[in-house]
Write a structure and sequence with these properties.
This protein has 448 residues and is an alpha/beta fold. The protein has helices spanning 3-19, 24-34, 39-54, 56-64, 75-90, 96-110, 113-129, 140-147, 152-162, 164-173, 191-200, 226-229, 238-247, 264-272, 286-298, 344-347, 350-367, 387-399, 415-418, 432-435, and strands spanning 180-184, 205-207, 214-217, 233-235, 254-257, 278-283, 304-308, 323-329, 371-381, 403-405, 423-424, 427-430, 440-447. The structure holds S-adenosylmethionine. It is found in: Cytoplasm.
Length: 448
């Protein structure tokens, strides 16, 4: 495929991602497969798409100085400009003249000569004069928002909650690639054997401190490895692995995962139980329950019974006090996974936080009575926000005197985490910059 053609596919894809409000990861995968993008171009395409979305607000700030802001640009023209500026300023392997030439060709092909000369003018002007200085932006929060391309309200909210330094670290980390980690299926292979096999294939690997089953993988495409394709390993962020580690399950237990699709943590739980006992896994829709069952089958795990069901109505299906362990990995704003799904930072609004916190509280209130006395419940989210995390936990504990934070939780965290600043009064708030994991919250509650 010609460079220009690939760039045109990227522009179309970026427009679609913006119009569909997200799902960038799914749309990129689909586009790569449906357009038969050759493997050699896959990495560059992914980098340009993610990079352009990740840096959208910075790119728009750069463009403002060169585009008449009163002029309404067609979405594809704006995307073409953003994508070109991204390549000019954040990728050093493509010379500016080549980027401008390709942009002009795309503008001619998709539009007409007038648009081509407009695109040419904007980009050449920017090349000659340089982009506006970010230092000129007044206000620390405002500057950080533009520099790291996060909405101003979110940056201000995080600064109020966690202070400037943590917020700045988090915003910057959200622009980086996170570490890729995998989890071995210990009933099929040991961690050491998996690492040996991957090293022979040229992968760089090291053990995770978060889970005895975790491996951090450096360069290489794990999706094409035998270990992945035959269910010896699965991809999972280390923060998610920690959830099941902290659930402390044992073979033979009865466990509930109330919000379990796509099944990362529930399959880990089945592995920890050595595939003995029973696990009930729910998610809202039948399609999602099917996803969980497929993941379990791929890993040869048979004790998971996945069904469609609303966590808030599980008392209709299960007796009170019937589970030894419960996991509530709740639906959330997802601000901890901005690195992998950058559209989240633009699409989620401040109102969503209170709405989701109310759903999370509702789920906790309805699911917790199903826990046996002396049993353990983990509440977790992949977000960084005190309302959804500490706030929901605090409200639940205030309203349920028969439940308490498990005081042994902090002592049982891996020692690297105990030494980090990420522990809060109500649980562990992992920031993405501390261990290059997802931003993640988890806490453990005991029925007393
Ligand atoms: C953070 S994800 C769970 C990820 C999963 N635990 C894993 O490790 O793969 C939250 C899930 O909750 C589901 N969900 C949302 N509202 C729910 C409800 N009321 N009852 C059950 N599941 C719900 C969503 O469909 C989503 O799949």
């Amino acid at each position: 495929m010609e460079n220009v053609q690939i760039r045109e596919v990227i522009v179309e894809l970026l427009v679609r991602i913006e119009q569909d409000s997200g799902f960038s990861h799914l749309l990129i995968d689909h586009e790569i497969k449906s357009k038969n993008i050759p493997p050699k171009d896959e990495a560059l395409m992914t980098e340009i798409v993610y990079g352009t979305i990740q840096r959208k607000l910075t790119l728009d700030y750069y463009l403002e100085g060169f585009v008449n802001t009163k002029k309404t640009l067609k979405p594809w023209v704006r995307m073409l400009l953003r994508m070109s500026v991204y390549q000019m300023h954040f990728l050093d392997r493509i010379p500016a003249h080549a980027i401008i030439h390709e942009a002009v060709e795309i503008a001619k092909h998709r539009g007409h000569k007038g648009i081509a000369s407009f695109v040419n003018g904007v980009l050449r002007n920017m090349q000659r004069k340089g982009v506006p200085d970010l230092e000129a932006i007044e206000g620390q929060a405002e500057r950080l928002a533009v520099e790291t391309s996060h909405p101003e309200w979110l940056v201000k909210r995080w600064i109020n909650m966690y202070g400037y330094d943590i917020t700045s670290g988090m915003c910057r980390a959200n622009l980086e690639r996170k570490l890729l980690s995998i989890r071995v299926q210990p009933l099929k292979i040991t961690r050491q054997a998996a690492m040996d096999e991957l090293r022979e294939l040229g992968f760089e690997t090291r053990m995770s401190d978060f889970s005895s089953q975790g491996i951090i993988v450096g360069r290489g495409n794990i999706l094409r490895s035998r270990l992945f394709n035959e269910g010896y390993v699965t991809i999972q962020d280390q923060s998610s692995m920690l959830v099941t580690e902290m659930l402390h399950v044992e073979p033979g237990m009865t466990v509930l995962d109330a919000c379990s699709a796509p099944g990362g943590k529930v399959t880990h739980t089945a592995e920890k139980m050595q595939n003995e006992g029973s696990i009930f896994a729910y998610d809202l829709h039948a399609k999602k329950a099917q996803q969980i069952q497929e993941k379990a089958a791929a890993l040869d795990l048979t004790i998971i019974n996945a069904k469609a069901g609303d966590a808030r109505k599980l008392q209709q299906k299960h007796e009170k006090e019937s589970f030894d362990r419960i996991l509530i990995d709740a639906p959330c704003t997802g601000f901890g996974v901005i690195r992998g799904k950058p559209d989240i930072k633009y699409n989620k609004k401040e109102d969503d936080i209170a709405r989701l916190a109310s759903i999370q509280t509702d789920i906790l209130n309805h699911v917790a009575p199903l826990l046996k006395k002396g049993g353990l419940l983990i509440y977790s989210t992949c977000t960084v926000d005190k309302t959804e995390n500490d706030g929901v936990t605090e409200t639940f504990l205030e309203q349920h005197p028969d439940f308490a934070l498990d005081s042994t939780f902090f002592d049982q965290l891996p020692s690297v985490i105990q030494q980090s600043p990420d522990c809060s009064e109500f649980g562990l708030q992992l920031f993405p910059q501390t261990f290059s994991t997802d931003g993640f919250f988890l806490t453990r509650i005991k029925r007393v």
